[in-house]
Amino acid sequence: MLAYIIRRLLIAVPVLLGVTIINFIVINLAPGSPVEMMIDPNTPPADIEAKKDALGLNDPLYLQYIHWLVDVFKGNFGFSLTTYQPVAQMIGERIGPTVTLMGLSFIVGLAIAVPLGIISATRQNSKLDYLATGGSFLGISIPNFFLALGLIYVFSLELKLLPSGGMITLGGDGGFVDRLKHLILPVLVLGTGIAGKKIRYVRSSVIDILGQDYLRTARAKGVREFMVVNKHALRNALIPIVTVIGLEVPILLGGAVVTEQIFSWPGIGQLTMGSIMNRDYPTLMALNLLAAFMVLAANLLTDIIYSVADPRIKYK
Amino acid sequence: MEHLLTVNRLQTAFRTDQGEVISIDDVSFRLKAGETLGIVGESGCGKSVTSLSIMRLLGAKGRISRGEIIFEDKSLGKLTEAQMRDIRGNDISMIFQEPMTSLNPVFTIGHQMIEAIRLHMSLDKKAARAYAIEMLKRVGIPRPEVMVDEYPHALSGGMRQRVMIAMALSCEPRLLIADEPTTALDVTIQAQILELMKKLKQESGTAIMLITHDLGVIAEMADKVIVMYAGQVVEETDVFTLFDEPKHPYTQGLMQSIPHIDAEHGERLASIPGSVPSLQNMPAGCRFRARCPHAMEKCEAELPPLIPAGKNHLTRCWLAVQPASMAKEAAYG
Q1: What is the pLDDT of residue B257?
Q2: Domain presence at residue B325
Q3: A220 touches chain B (CB under 8 A)
Q4: Is B211 part of the contact surface with chain A (CB cutoff 8 Å)?
Q5: Touching check for A312 and chain B: CB below 8 Å?
């Protein structure tokens, strides 16, 4: 197992390198440059070129990449071209809010999806089942931005119950209750989407297991039906569910670009959006590296959890 | 002697999209303690439904629609679900056809055995574990104290079936229902498992209901046999009579279709023409009529009841209605 993990970590190095190279090329292929974003359109071209030279943007691409890479190996992710803050610091400030938002949304989504999925699988074609699958269909289909705007309209504008955005009330105490109030709407939006997708997954996974012979064995032993479903079946049904959830862990850090934008949530998603708009290359590269790293880490973690959840799987 | 199990005119129905379908109809038999009853018949004839009816494990769509099942003075159809759970795995236990899929892959063998043991016996975890190891030893699992912590995937099919038997017998049931216990195993393992069941039966006096489509297994194991066809019992007798003089044309057909080792080279194996009628359009009259070489007009008009055809011998066939003189002879004989 340990040898397997070490091997996977070694493989991750070339993968990460490849990802950064491709990202670097794609970012530079996109039209526009950071300098054009930061200046008055009336600035003479010569001044723009001078600024580009100063920032190293006129160097050959491979040189720019190598400079960036060498800095990264030194632990230096560079400075934002728009705020001049260290990139590492900017990302560090935003990871907390994003993990809070996404983590809570995940928990809410799963807390809805797992029980509903089980109920709808064990009572196939009942009214409850139709309600759950119908709800799941709605959850998948309604675009996040639409649901977000609708909720803001109802709860912020009309009912004036909840804030329409931000993480704390400006000038307020920023206490727990205040933060919680700011979390409710974005978590509701993201949680609905996650629940919608997962209900169907849990349902089909449980239905798959409910037909298995070993459940009949459990019943024939005199095990009560509740335990047959929630112990014998669920433990098996969770294996594929764990896989799917594990593979989605990267978005915990990637953040929700659209939803964060609408609710002005100071997270990674908003930062990503901003850096794209401003052609903030160093920030974008760091964000991409973070995303790639998270994907690889989540994959490895999923494989490890998988072997814990399913005794039939052993890595050598 | 009192009967351990009496199944009386049992009818089981399943709800389907096309309405309720009767799966088994008018199934009756009795089983004494320590006896082995074989139930034979081809796939879909209702053997498994009969056993699942006794266990009341028919699922949400199945129900016992008529008749009764009496087990030790208790009418199983009238018990509550909780009372029924006390019986399952305790007084009546079951082993299944597919040892490869009948054990839960994510729990150790010990875990699954201890679960059954602790449901019905008041043993603490440690004692239950020791008892599970003891049971594994009895069914011939090598190194039981190691195997008890193994997951099912580490065992071969034959070993898994041994585990199933150990689990089924751990609460010393009065009745063991074995639903095709050897069908999925290869021949040498089959023989070992049958030998094991025989040995355990002698030790514990458990009655066995052995469901199979393999007449060889019946000859090996059973005291009494019922032959089922299309959801009904068509013949019932002791194992020797069944092989010596089968009365029902279906049973006769089954006997002829057993391959013999001394058959002539190039000789074709006899088979029964046609196929089993589907449950949705079961014909009136005798259900075997369309495939029967002796079919008469009467067979179409009227379903034969189980007719006595000798001592302890019943057959659902009008051919058994003999001329008065012969019938008298049979009665004295």
Answers
A1: 84
A2: yes
A3: yes
A4: no
A5: yes
As given in the structure block, the two tokens for residue A45 are 């071209």
- Kindly report the length of chain B: 333
Burial of A6 (0-12, 13-18, 19+ CB in 10 A): exposed
Whole-number average pLDDT of chain A: 86
CATH number of A87-309: 1.10.3720.10
**Considering the domain boundaries, does residue B187 fall inside one?**
no
Nearest CA-CA partner of A20 in A64, A75, A74 = A64
Q: Is residue B152 part of a domain?
A: yes
How many domains would you assign to chain B?
A: 2
Domain end position, chosen among B154, B170, B186: B170
For B55, the closest of A214, A220, A232 (CB atoms) is A220
The whole-model pTM stands at 0.78
> Can you name the residues that pair with B30 across neighbouring β-strands?
B6
Residue in chain B nearest A217 by alpha carbon: B102
Q: Which domain holds residue B323?
A: 261-332
Which among B170, B198, B213 is the end of a domain?
B170
Q: Is residue B296 part of a domain?
A: yes
Interchain CB distance below 8 Å, B106 and A212: no
Res B326: pLDDT? 47
The one-letter amino acid at A45 = P
pLDDT classification of B106: cutoffs 50, 70, 90: very high
Q: Which tokens is A288 given?
A: 């991409």
How confident is the model over B241-283, as pLDDT tens digits?
999 889 999 999 888 888 877 777 777 888 888 888 888 888 8
Check B106 against A236: CB less than 8 A apart. Answer: yes
pLDDT > 70? residue B322: no
